[in-house]
Sequence to fold (341 residues):
Amino acid sequence: MSDMERDDELDRMLARNFGPPHSRAAHAESIEPSSGFAAGVMERVREEAAAAAAPGPIRFPWRRAVPGICMVVLAVAVCATLLIFASIGVVHLASRAFTSAAAAGPQGTMADWTGTAMRLHLGWLLIGFLIAFVPFTLSRALISGRQRT
Amino acid sequence: MGAELTKAAADRADVARVRAGDVEVFAAIVRRWQGPLINLAYRFCGDRGRAEDMAQEAFFRAYRGLQGYRGDAEFSTWLFALATNLYRSELRRIPQRMVALEDAPEPRDPVSISETHELRDRDLAVRRAVLALPAKYREAMLLFYFHEMDVPAAAESLGVPEGTVKARLHRGRELLRAKLPRLLALTAEGVV
Fold:
């Protein structure tokens, strides 16, 4: 048996086993698609098409937000600076006031302490804390009440 | 030939409509090519369920990649190349259960068995021997015979030059001839 004959025979065998399903030579192991195959493909295709058609997420409006962000940063910086200077001033004043009050000795009267507190505006600070505390507690009470209902 | 031209024309029309946004037309493409794509997958993996899964994925990827199809080649050529690429990578990811080429059995003595059994036995031996070939020879052979011995079509599906396909076919045949000498001799003598 020549090589060419063997090649021809091998070709016939391989074409029968691996040829396309419609080929006359192919007879072995051709399979038909299951009944739901096309429907399954189309389901995925429709999902993909719907996802592609859906609008994308809205982009953050950087152009409009940038001036606002700059203002907030500036305000925070100014407030922080003022707070730092104010703290330094208060500490300085307090140390001087309490030093002079202590120097008055045990005979230092209640009036001295009151005068010191007045100079430091402690009353206004207390009122400020109270004003900040009331809306804080009120909002917390409202939120906790809403969560219970 | 006429049928092929009709299919190609139908493909062109359907592809244009799908690209224009008519998604439902893709069903016609699926119906036209589901048989060949499933059977090609089956020849790669030898498992009916897996073949359908792989073919479904191939159609889905074809839909997603349709905007990138430039129309230089026939749609079917593009589809087969995409499917072949997918099937090869799927089988690299999860290989089929295979026997080594040396372990692929030759058929039993054909004279002692009825003709039908013998034919089935022989086909099984041939399929096992081909599936046990190293991947590059196996893929070249599968696509060459699936494309009805069309070397350019097999080369396009594999994305390699025609000369490479021819060389791989030659080497694959050598390996098969070495594996199945008795079978080939018996068949040529007309025993089977």
